[in-house]
Design the sequence.
């Protein structure tokens, strides 16, 4: 019968090893069976004859557990408790159909080179296993520490955003005083967007947070842009149908295409200014989504443990922040931006791409404001 090269029998004559193995009892286990539990008493050294087993510190296959090793044919386990007489230090679970032989140190020939060599091999295996265990635990603890730092940074970022929003709310009377003196209320929006952009980028720089944590990346950008356009097209069509219906209901004051409606403060069409504002809006749409997507991703990050509905909470809170920054343009515009923000937030959750969401926002916004015209 074929037997693997067991590590505990290294440097021993093959004939002696074969004879000893045949005397050891054999047991078979199905996937998921627990062969040895942490903290249980044990006096056996288990020899893996076939299949694969997993060694876990803590509850197997849970967030609190740490997978220490995968045991393959030729490996052994239980050697620490068998040598020192203490409880087992790990859970051993069958990953596949497995066959295991059990060996007690008393099964070895007394006062022979076999017992000495096996004991030495077990000691070497134990040293290597302790080293690997320490490395696995260190890796897990480092990952947990990094996650805790990221959550702490995310919480601090939200505090900064909310503080900035508070200043915006207190400044509303001043904004209302300044707006009649400006050619368009969009100037206020552009200024606010730039302020919030500085708040976000300055924090990201100081906290040394990677943009990839927030799904902000450029690799595969053509696919991301195409995804954004595909998402925007249905909503652009719906908005066109709504505008046609409004123009039909009120033909004296509303037309289907009103590209200058966003610059209604000007008596005469100024297409140079229209183009400048349209391009500015397209560019700043990416800035707005940069801010909103990072806020939403941050909220997702601190939702511990995440639930089936936690992403909707993140979408809603981020959207409230997003739409609140449009209050100076009127409650109707703020409400429309809230509806659009829910769509963009859902899209961000689905596609996990800031660039795609920014593209959709830019395309839809230019179409709705500077081509069709929003009848406010």
Sequence:
């Amino acid at each position: 019968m074929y037997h693997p090269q067991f590590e505990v029998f290294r440097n021993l004559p093959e004939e002696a090893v074969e004879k000893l193995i045949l005397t050891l009892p054999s047991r078979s286990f199905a996937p998921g069976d627990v062969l040895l539990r942490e903290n249980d008493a044990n006096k056996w050294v288990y020899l893996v004859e076939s299949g694969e087993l997993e060694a876990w510190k803590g509850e197997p296959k849970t967030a609190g557990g740490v997978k220490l090793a995968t045991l393959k044919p030729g490996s052994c386990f239980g050697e620490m408790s068998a040598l020192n007489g203490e409880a087992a230090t790990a859970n051993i679970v069958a990953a596949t159909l497995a066959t295991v032989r059990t060996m007690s140190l008393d099964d070895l020939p007394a006062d022979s080179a076999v017992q000495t060599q096996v004991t030495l091999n077990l000691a070497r295996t134990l040293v290597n296993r302790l080293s690997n265990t320490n490395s696995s635990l260190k890796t897990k603890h480092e990952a947990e520490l990094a996650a805790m730092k990221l959550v702490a940074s995310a919480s601090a970022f939200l505090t900064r955003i909310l503080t900035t929003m508070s200043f915006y709310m207190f400044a509303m009377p001043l904004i209302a005083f300044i707006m009649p003196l400006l050619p368009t209320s969009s100037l206020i929006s552009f200024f606010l967007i730039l302020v919030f952009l500085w708040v976000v980028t300055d924090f990201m720089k100081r906290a040394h947070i990677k943009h990839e944590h927030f799904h902000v990346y450029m690799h595969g950008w053509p696919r991301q842009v195409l995804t954004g356009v595909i998402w925007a097209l249905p909503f652009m069509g719906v908005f066109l149908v709504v505008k046609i219906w409004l123009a039909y209901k009120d033909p004296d004051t509303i037309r289907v295409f009103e590209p200058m409606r966003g610059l209604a403060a000007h008596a005469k069409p100024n297409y140079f200014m229209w183009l400048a504002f349209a391009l500015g809006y397209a560019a700043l749409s990416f800035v707005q989504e940069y801010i909103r997507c990072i806020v939403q991703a941050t909220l997702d990050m601190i939702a511990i443990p995440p639930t089936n509905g936690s992403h909707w909470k993140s979408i809603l809170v981020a959207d409230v922040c997003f739409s609140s920054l449009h209050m100076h343009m009127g409650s109707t515009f703020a409400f429309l931006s809230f509806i659009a923000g829910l769509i963009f937030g859902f899209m961000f959750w689905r596609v996990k791409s800031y660039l795609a969401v920014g593209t959709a926002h830019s395309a839809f916004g230019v179409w709705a404001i500077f081509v069709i015209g929003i009848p406010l």
